[in-house]
Write a structure and sequence with these properties.
- This protein is an alpha/beta fold.
- The chain has 3 domains: 114 residues, 3-Layer(aba) Sandwich (Cobalt-precorrin-4 Transmethylase, domain 1), CATH 3.40.1010; 94 residues, MazG-like (Helix Hairpins), CATH 1.10.287; 120 residues, no CATH class.
- The chain contains 16 helices and 5 strands.
- The protein has a 5-stranded parallel beta sheet, sandwiched between helices.
- Helix 2 links the parallel strand 2 and strand 3.
- The N and C termini lie far apart (83 Å).
């Protein structure tokens, strides 16, 4: 095999074949200038399958392609020997450059075997890369697979799913990805993120079936692009930042304006696990500037005899201490027949209300919460 070189030009060699490869996920018509020059320059063009993705764009460009098989490539399709023989006949008969479109998904017997068969037949072999897969191209193929699964003749299980029936899977797949991340399992994380992405494709495909009232995977991706551009003015605009903290602060400000939110607690998914919910609320409270003795304390108790919250103290072994303490609480809850998730969720919701009430009180007094000092936070903090 002669390797990669430019096959198009005035010095074409008779009795030679160009094997043209394209990306497995690249748009079918997105070919290099050299590939288009070759294909439209009078070469005889062949493909091994009737559903080769290049057939339609080449036909639109006026390029005639001869299919060597009667159907899609497979066990019954042409092998490397028969393909080499047919291509050799055409090269010898016409004296024209012969081009064979390699299957983007991989030739049945492999392109290396085909090249070897051509060389055995005494033919010169050139290779030309007609296109490469751009980053993200595989997502197009994933969307096409999901369309096939939901379309008539696809999978009956996939076809009957709804947004509601898939809700639990979205949470489950996200947890599995998180577990792989915690375990440091890079390969597992890649796989689990694929499962999360499948849920995105699934919901988008279901929504698309509502027609004008629905939305598509392109709407999802397009909305994300718009959001990323809006919230990164230091990248796509003229805003200057002096570090990650400034980036995060800008993000939160832009988000608050976009959403019309009056509290840092608005928009938080209250269905998330209570421990995560509480940690997020605490983080947001501290970021807002609420003093730690207020932010780290449990909200006002609805009943006088309810136990208080943590004192917010830290030690060198704080992480271990906290982990053991939380474990002990879960054990105690089990002994008492109490669901710790439900109990903590109730406290966390009141904590959210406490923060929001303090913010509202400050605004009612004409103050901006983010500008309050410790003393003024205490003045507005619900008792």
């Amino acid at each position: 095999m002669t390797g990669l070189r430019e096959p198009a030009g005035p010095d074409l060699v008779v009795d030679s074949v160009v094997l043209l490869s394209t990306g497995a996920f690249a748009p079918a018509g997105a070919l290099t200038a050299a590939a288009w020059d070759l294909l439209r320059g009078g070469a005889d063009v062949y493909a091994g399958r009737s559903d080769h993705p290049l057939l339609e764009p080449l036909a639109e460009a006026g390029v005639r392609v001869t299919v060597l098989a009667h159907g899609p490539a497979g066990p019954g399709g042409p092998g490397p020997g028969s393909v080499a023989a047919r291509l050799g006949e055409r090269a010898s008969a016409t004296g024209a450059r012969v081009v064979y479109l390699l299957d983007p998904a991989g030739e049945p017997a492999g392109s290396a075997d085909l090249a070897a068969a051509l060389e055995t037949a005494g033919l010169g072999v050139d290779t030309l890369v007609g296109s490469w897969d751009p980053p993200g191209a595989a997502m197009l193929a994933a969307a096409a697979v999901m369309d096939r699964l939901r379309s008539p003749g696809g999978c009956p299980w996939d076809a009957k799913q709804t947004h509601a029936s898939l809700a639990g899977y979205l949470i489950e797949e996200a947890y599995e990805a998180y577990q792989a991340l915690e375990d440091g399992d890079s390969g597992g994380l890649r796989e689990e993120l694929g499962d999360v992405f499948m849920q995105v494709l699934f919901h988008a495909r279901i929504a698309a079936e509502r027609g004008a009232e629905g939305w598509t995977i392109d709407d999802v991706a397009g909305g994300l692009v718009d959001k990323l551009v809006r919230r990164h003015p230091h990248v796509f605009g003229e805003v200057s930042v002096d570090g990650p903290d400034a980036v995060e602060a800008n993000w939160e400000k832009i988000k608050a304006v976009e959403k019309g939110r009056r509290s840092v607690t608005e928009g938080m998914p209250l269905s998330q696990p209570a421990l995560a919910l509480t940690a997020t609320l605490y983080r947001k409270a501290r970021k807002l500037g609420i003093p730690d003795d207020l932010a780290a304390a449990a909200p006002a108790r609805p009943e006088p005899d309810e136990a208080g919250g943590p004192d917010g103290g830290t030690t060198a072994g704080g992480a271990e201490d906290v982990g053991r303490a939380l474990f002990s609480v879960v054990v105690l809850a089990g002994r008492l027949g109490v669901d710790p998730e439900t109990a903590l969720r109730a406290v966390a919701r009141r904590y959210r209300d406490t923060i929001a009430a303090a913010e509202a009180s400050a605004r009612d007094a004409g103050a901006e919460p983010a500008e309050l000092d410790a003393a003024r936070w205490r003045a507005h903090w619900p008792s």
